[in-house]
Design a protein that fits this description.
about 400 residues, mainly alpha, two-stranded antiparallel sheet, 19 helices, globular
Length: about 400
């Protein structure tokens, strides 16, 4: 069994390597290639001699390695920023997050109602279409070297705001769909714990950096990386226990470490782990999707994808302009966070566990897959999209006029 397990993981890694080479040859984002390769294998795939493409024995460990990938992706993204930068944008984050979630949630409700779903299914669909994939957003920002862009701070803030919404919404829907009812008091306590936990990291980043610098002043790279990774996994585990997504725990830890004297050293050491385990996340995500069961939800998913792309673009423009960003930066927001992922799948699984309509599962899988493909592509082509709209609305000229007006004021 052990030998089979090692062999299966080895085959999975070869498939990941193949997807990476293909993406490199075509000069395209690696994300959709990893997801599609994952979809082509799995429980529906054949066993050819000793080559078992079903990954029956190894699916759990591949899934775990994928979860590790999310941690490294978000931890690295946190290292690219700092708590001080995000604290300066606090008001913008609350405003932007509220607008973004509000627009996408309402559109999801309308779509569920217009397509004839019952009430509970409509709320599930609204949740599926409301929250972006933190893993895909992180990967795209890093790959396209956009971590230095002005709008990226707001994008990170919206991702964190979404997590608070996620915690609240999962609690409510769990009670409604699975019958695990929570009182309003219990929900408020859960939300308050999440907020206090997140604020704790901001306090540590402000008051405890001196102590952290002393603790991390370690010459041995071996000891240094062991301590950092031990903290990363411990914080991620604690986060999950108190209903804050483990990925957000990793992001918060990265934001704190970004304030220390060891941030540059950490960035260089984390990159190989980020790339390796991050690729496994997208492969394992594809592995969870059975393409033979997607047929009945094709048009439903395509309609939701079109609505989400339009809604995200409009929400991004509104959020950016409302928080004082340029038209170009605002354009980038909606096109960067359009991808959907892990949260959508969690909600779909909840719906199936609650005996809701079975079409929700293939709908969510196809919806997430399409946006995982189009999301990175739209982000990569955001400058071209901006140029197209600029010809009609003269956004660049308006930004220049606004900048001149501020200088003369």
């Amino acid at each position: 069994m052990t030998n089979d397990l090692v062999l299966q993981v080895g085959i999975a890694l070869l498939l990941v390597a193949f997807a990476a080479i293909l993406a490199g040859k075509l000069k395209f984002s690696i994300i959709p290639f990893l997801i599609i390769v994952g979809m082509l294998v799995g429980s529906h795939a054949p066993k050819i001699g000793f080559i078992d493409l079903r990954f029956v024995d190894s699916d759990e460990i591949i899934d775990f390695l994928g979860r590790v990938g999310i941690l490294f992706l978000l931890f690295y993204l946190g290292l690219e920023f700092s708590v001080k930068k995000l604290m300066k944008s606090g008001k913008s984050i609350v405003t932007g997050g509220s607008i973004y979630i509000g627009i996408n949630f309402v559109l999801g409700l309308l779509y569920g109602w217009m397509t004839g779903f019952p009430l509970l299914e409509t709320f599930i669909i609204a949740g599926i279409t409301s929250v972006s994939s933190s893993a895909i957003v992180a990967k795209v920002l890093v790959d396209l070297k956009r971590t230095v862009n002005k709008e990226t701070e707001l994008i990170l803030g919206i991702v964190m705001f979404e997590d608070i919404f996620l915690a609240v919404y999962l609690s409510i829907m769990s009670g409604l769909v699975l019958g695990k009812s929570q009182s309003i008091g219990e929900m408020l306590v859960s939300i308050l714990m999440s907020l206090v936990y997140i604020l704790l990291f901001f306090v540590v980043a402000r008051k405890g950096i001196g102590l952290l610098n002393k603790l991390l002043d370690i010459r041995s790279n071996e000891i240094f990386i062991i301590i950092v990774f031990a903290l990363l996994f411990f914080i991620a585990g604690i986060s999950e226990k108190i209903h804050v997504a483990e990925a957000i725990g990793a992001l918060l830890l990265g934001l704190v470490f970004a304030e220390t004297d060891q941030s540059d050293r950490l960035e260089k050491m984390v990159v190989p782990f980020r790339d390796f385990f991050g690729a496994l996340f997208f492969f394992s995500f594809g592995l969870s999707i059975d393409p033979t069961k997607l047929g009945g939800a094709v048009w439903l998913a395509i309609g939701a994808v079109v609505l989400s792309i339009i809604g995200n673009f409009f929400a991004g423009m509104l959020v950016g302009r409302k928080t004082g960003l340029s038209y170009k930066a605002s354009n980038n927001i909606g096109l960067t966070i359009v991808s959907r992922g892990e949260f959508s799948i969690i909600l779909a699984n909840m719906a199936i566990a609650g005996n809701l309509m079975e079409v929700i599962k293939p709908f969510s899988a196809l919806y997430v897959l399409l946006l995982a493909i189009f999301g990175p592509l739209l982000t990569k082509k955001s400058n071209t999209i901006y140029s197209f709209f600029d010809r009609w609305f003269h956004w660049t000229q308006k930004d220049k006029e606004a900048k001149t007006a501020r200088k003369t004021a």
